[in-house]
Amino acid sequence: MERIGIIGSGRAGGALGAALASAGYPVTGVSARSRASLERAARLLPHVPVLPPDEVTRRADMVLLAVPDDAIATVALSLPFTEDQYAVHLSGAHGTSVLRGIAATPVALHPPMTFTDAPARLAGVVFTATAPDRALVERLVKDLGAEVQWIAEEQRARYHAGLVHGANHLVTLVSQALDVLRAAGIADPSATLRPLLTATLDNTLRSGHDALTGPIVRGDAETVQAHLAVLRGRTASTYTELARATVELAAADGRLDAETAARIEQVLERDRTGEAPR
Length: 278
What we know:
By secondary structure, the chain is an alpha/beta fold. The chain is built from 11 helices and 7 strands. It is elongated, with a radius of gyration of 24 Å.
């Protein structure tokens, strides 16, 4: 098995390093600078020496560049790579072009999941890869108990935008919903939302937009108007924009007729302009 070196002991680097070590890969070095990174390395990779980045690189066959997206190119160019090595970055937005100019074989390998300070559970995770050496990547991911899908270099930004829109913005949306429920006097908004959100997410992942329910798909324009009357600030604008997208979705698949869609659009437009409802 390839010797693994890890540049950066953030959550992703630490968790993936621990997963690789558990899969039998020799992790020969890790770089860490901050106190949090040093503590994480000691906890997740207790038998791995903490070394300067250049020494981590010299000891490895495969180097994981677990650094922020904007630092990948600069860090990679600063390391003493050889033609016999692999340089693997973990960014979703970048492909292999960000590693242009180094001697090592470039690999873009993104795990679409959120890491914590605990060892990662990778079963069922589908890594997204861009690389010239498919056989090595497929073996590596299989050894981790995960799966891999391939994506073209020019589609990386679109792929990552989809992930961010679905995951990061979900956090924003749910946080706003919790605030609204709390303002309504709900003592435990998380307990109230959890069954609905869990069922909705499962249904959507299984059935796509066919899982859509609620006042818009039912054509309840007055209910939407009542919501807008009580929402304020950023939450109101988020609701309005998502409601517009929902109208388009429901109208496109025929569940909302043109007249009803237009009526809900009028409600949303009056709210945007501040015009009093007629």
